[in-house]
Specification:
The protein is an alpha/beta fold and 299 residues long. It contains eight helices and ten strands. The protein has an eight-stranded parallel β-barrel, surrounded by six helices. It has a two-stranded antiparallel sheet with strand order 5-6. α3 links the parallel β3 and β4. It starts with a strand and ends with a helix.
Length: 299
């Protein structure tokens, strides 16, 4: 099982921000992700920096750790401009970027550009077109596309990604259409569990829900002749009924991770601690998890 971390973009780069990304590399995390939002929930009235510039700075400040978003969505992104930024980021990083990508939700990003929040159906429709066009933009030198929601007129993306044929997608999805996109376009699939269980569900119910999601992903893969084992399965923690429980001790995390590994999860992403927030945790426990848990999960 791979162990990764999520560093929220809440600190100025020269006042602790750079240190967090470099520390993540020193601790041995497989990937350091960040959220791609304009603002997010309880952090809305505080500092929050852009994902792509932050990841570009992190790429220059590190040399080994992979970097990525969890997740980018169509809420305020256009495939043409996003593709150019991603190719540039992949180049600066030397081919260390993974794009976590999802349909988005109804939070602050959904209306920040002055539009009405999209319905669930429209989000799904846009997401499908967004992924299709972005895939082409990252693999072809010139793309012309006339879709329902997005267009491109001889959009040039030369020289393309360092990673070939393009940087990998990690598709966040639980519904049928999203799982088909993950099967067709994803190097990885991302889940946070079942949001309906967060408030009143149990850890056992959550694991059962994730098992069901993985089974449906397998069916989506089978429909196109793909082996589901080819897709990495990422769990972003903090949104299951366990909440912060797995971060309370090394033993608690190893138990949590082991139970999810048995379901088929191959990568777990934990949030770097942020005091006085939903992601508050003991820094010493966080570092023990990073350095000691992987060995225990291999035994």
């Amino acid at each position: 099982m791979r162990l990764s971390t999520v560093i929220l973009p809440v600190r100025r780069w020269h006042d602790g921000g750079r240190d967090e990304w470099q520390r993540a590399e020193l601790l041995g995390f497989h990937t350091a992700y960040t959220y791609d939002h304009l603002s997010w929930r309880t952090f809305r009235d505080g500092p929050w920096f852009g994902a792509v510039p932050t990841l570009t700075a992190a790429a220059a400040a590190t040399s080994r750790i992979r970097l990525g978003t969890l997740v980018t969505s169509p809420n305020f992104r256009h495939p043409v401009t996003l593709a150019k930024e991603l190719i540039s980021l992949d180049d600066v990083s030397g081919g260390r970027v993974t794009l976590g990508i999802g349909a988005g939700g109804t939070g602050f990003d959904a209306t920040a550009l002055g539009q009405e929040a999209w319905t669930p159906r429209e989000r799904a429709d846009r997401f499908a077109e967004f992924v299709e066009l972005l895939d082409r933009l990252l693999t072809e030198d010139s793309v012309t596309y006339d879709g329902t929601f997005y267009s491109a007129a001889e959009a040039r993306d030369i020289p393309g990604c360092v990673q070939r044929p393009r940087l990998p997608f990690a598709v966040a999805a639980t519904g049928p259409r999203g799982l088909k996109l993950a099967a067709g376009h994803g190097r990885a699939w991302v889940t946070t569990g079942d949001p309906k269980l967060f408030e009143s569900g149990t850890p056992e119910q959550s694991r059962a829900a994730i098992r069901g999601q993985i089974e449906r992903l397998g069916k989506a893969c089978a429909e196109i002749g793909r082996d589901v084992s080819d897709i990495e399965k990422i769990l972003l923690t903090g949104f299951t009924p366990d909440r912060s429980g797995p971060m309370e001790s090394l033993d608690a995390f190893v138990d949590f991770a082991g139970r999810h590994f048995e379901l088929g999860i191959t990568e777990i992403a934990v949030h770097a601690p942020i005091p006085d927030s939903d992601f508050a945790a003991d820094q010493r426990v966080f570092e023990r998890i990073a350095t000691e848990a992987p060995a225990q999960l291999r035994t």
